[in-house]
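Aim 2, interim progress. The first record below pairs a target sequence with its structure tokens.
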Amino acid sequence: QVQLVESGGGLVQAGGSLRLSCAASGRTFSTYAMAWFRQAPGKEREFVAASRWSDGYTYYADSVKGRFIISRDNAKNTVYVEMNSLKPEDTAVYYCAASSRIISATMIKEYAKYDYWGQGTQVTVSS
């Protein structure tokens, strides 16, 4: 089992920045990839960014590419997402996810491929 705890959400004005953190505990050595997803009211959960734990290779949704940066601290078993140039449409609950299974590059954006989820943290971007 892997436990995930997110932090860092809040209210920010458009154009501002936030950094979310996700601390993993438990059987973290079995983690293959960690990712961030988000879900806005009335919408489906969508992929934001992912990082392969073995080599740090990263993936981004087109909507956040160039604005968000996913990073990790292996020693702390923590993954971050730095969110810059935030827009009102970035408003959502952001979830951290982890997978203990190998996920292909074509499937890494699929939320069903992740085994563990955090409780979510609210990000609100005002215009």
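The second target in this work package is listed in the same format:
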Amino acid sequence: QVQLVESGGGLVQAGGSLRLSCTASGRTFSTHTMAWFRQAPGKEREFVSGINWSGFSKYYGDSAKGRFTISRDNAKNTVDLQMSMLKPEDTAVYYCAADAEVYGEVNTTVQVYENWGQGTQVTVSS
């Protein structure tokens, strides 16, 4: 098992930026794909961005393309999501997740991620 703890959420005005961070502990972090998902009230959990174990493959959901950047530091067991040009529709609880597969590639499906953080709230005001 791996434990994930998110930080960095908060309230920001539209057009602003936030940086989310996820710190992992437990099993080997560097061999697993990591991803960020988000969930707004009344909506399904949505893939935001993912990064494979090496950091060389990155994927973004349509809502994140051109505005968000994912990165990881395997030495520090962290994965970050830099969010810019934020919009009110980005308001949601953001979750960090770890894929069960070792040395796999990024998957956008919620079900393949077996470890989740508690989530951090991001609120974008208009």
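The chain is about 0% helix and 55% strand. This observation will shape the mutagenesis plan for the next reporting period.
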